[in-house]
């Protein structure tokens, strides 16, 4: 591709030099032919006058042709070339039938070649017809041989066909140049798209890691914050040092578990292996132990393997819901249910409403000041899942649903129902 591109670039850069060389070659040929015609031998006065007239017409035609090539003006040149080539072809064809004028046929052939390659098809054949007619008229007037009558018209026809062949080659070269330019543009666009895709992948990976670490820390630190608040209340309100120590021990254990949870999250990001049922059971058990609350965990349906991002999303939503339950309904029973159906996996967490009814600030914000269940919706939106949070049958219920991979196309976009 680079070789073809270099060749086309060379053609464009050297087009002006090539035109100048051709014009000089025509001028040299014009001078040589003039010497051959006028020094070829004595002729009668009428023939000499006709020779001079034909030679002058050819000279003026070559001069005009040189001007058009050195000062191109687009489509107007094509319109001007038709009569110009016609004059050159007729003058050269008529001149070649004159005494000592055989060499003038070179200009008629040159005009025929240009007519085949540079002007319209019909116009080119018209120029050829005029040239052949001039040959035949001159041959009849001067009584030339059968070779002149048939040979020169055949020579003009060959010149026209050569011009057609040159036109086909030029059109092919122009098409190749256009295709090459298009290919280079598409290649540049593909490279840009690849670069954008790499940047997008990097940003997506950063977002995924940031979201995962954030959710783990939000869950752990949120639960730890609750325990610290309880310990402070016990010390300030009840002055029960023993119970405060127990609460702080629980907080210390929760911090250790949070650290382990962070390590598991990093491990999950690297290995993409996370058993949802086991992790949900561990989260329910930790909540019961850390918050002295009764937590039930049920699994309904045949467990189904989920993509890692789906597994992590459901687990984090369950953990966030448990933290909110500890915050707004401390000590109350919590029910966690994991369901596998034919088309989706559902996680449901229900707990008492607590004092004041619906949890304040939920689901608008979480324990970390604004990234609770709302933040979980980002995960679900990427997976075409749904998230519902609100009071139901006298209890606060959080329900997250994710379609299985074969049902993703028909899944609804993520919504948050309150």
Sheet with most strands: 6 strands, mixed
Order of helices and strands: HHHHHHHHHEHEEHEEE
- Inertia-based shape: rod-shaped
Helix percent band: 55-70%
Task: Give a quick summary of the entry.
The chain has 418 residues and is α/β, with parallel strands linked by helices. It contains eleven helices and six strands. 69% of the residues lie in helices and 10% in strands.
Structure description:
Helices cover 69% and strands 10% of the residues. The protein has helices at 2-13, 15-38, 45-70, 75-95, 105-118, 121-142, 146-238, 241-271, 276-291, 308-328, 373-382, and strands spanning 295-300, 334-340, 344-352, 386-392, 395-403, 416-417. Strands 1-2-3-5-4-6 form a six-stranded mixed β-sheet, with helices on one face. β4 (386-392) and β5 (395-403) form a beta hairpin. α4 (75-95) packs parallel to α6 and α7 runs antiparallel to α8 (241-271). The chain is rod-shaped and about 140 Å long. The model is unreliable at 357-371 and 407-418 (pLDDT under 50).
